[in-house]
Amino acid sequence: MPLNKSLKTTLLTLTWLPVLYSFTSHVYQPYQIKGSSMTPTFNPGTSTTAKDIVLVQKFNIKSKPDSIAKGDIIMFRSPLDPDKLLTKRVIGVNGDRVYPKSPRYPKSEVKIPRNHLWVEGDNSFHSIDSNEFGPISKGLVVGKVVYIIWPASRWGQDLRGGLGDDI
């Protein structure tokens, strides 16, 4: 007895669900950026409530030693609340010396330990970042933000924010 066309389409669609799940869990995944800690790079408009949606690269992030560099924007689990994902810019990598901006940070100079990163929000007045919790372990990194996919008017925006290599 042959299956009708809609049932075939449904079964074919269901067979692709594991592929889609694997792709978004391990390769690329879209995320919505909330908050103002990365303004003006993300969510620059104050007159709108629209939030940017970005594409986050997940593959080869932890396995390749040079996959994360200064100036990259990463998404990571908060060291203060592991259920919360944060998005910040990498300011320092292992071996670098950084100078915290917050007077509350206990040291005036920090040497980034091996397999750690110093991260800061582009909008330092509204950012909880390494100036609060110190260097983060690379093990907390979920992925690297590679592209703004929404709104369409911001496609192709330079995510380095004009920072070049002088970070």
TrEMBL record:
Main location: mitochondrion
Location of the Peptidase S26 domain: 11-99, 109-150
Membrane topology: Single-pass membrane protein
Signal peptide region: 1-22
PROSITE patterns in UniProt: SPASE_I_1 (PS00501), SPASE_I_3 (PS00761)
EC numbers on record: 3.4.21.-
Highest rank taxon of the organism: Eukaryota
InterPro entries, alphabetized: IMP2 (IPR037730), LexA/Signal_pep-like_sf (IPR036286), Pept_S26A_signal_pept_1 (IPR000223), Pept_S26A_signal_pept_1_CS (IPR019758), Pept_S26A_signal_pept_1_Ser-AS (IPR019756), Peptidase_S26 (IPR019533)
Keywords assigned: Hydrolase, Membrane, Mitochondrion, Mitochondrion inner membrane, Protease, Signal, Transmembrane, Transmembrane helix
Places the protein is found: Mitochondrion inner membrane
Family that this chain belongs to: Belongs to the peptidase S26 family. IMP2 subfamily.
Protein name per UniProt: Mitochondrial inner membrane protease subunit
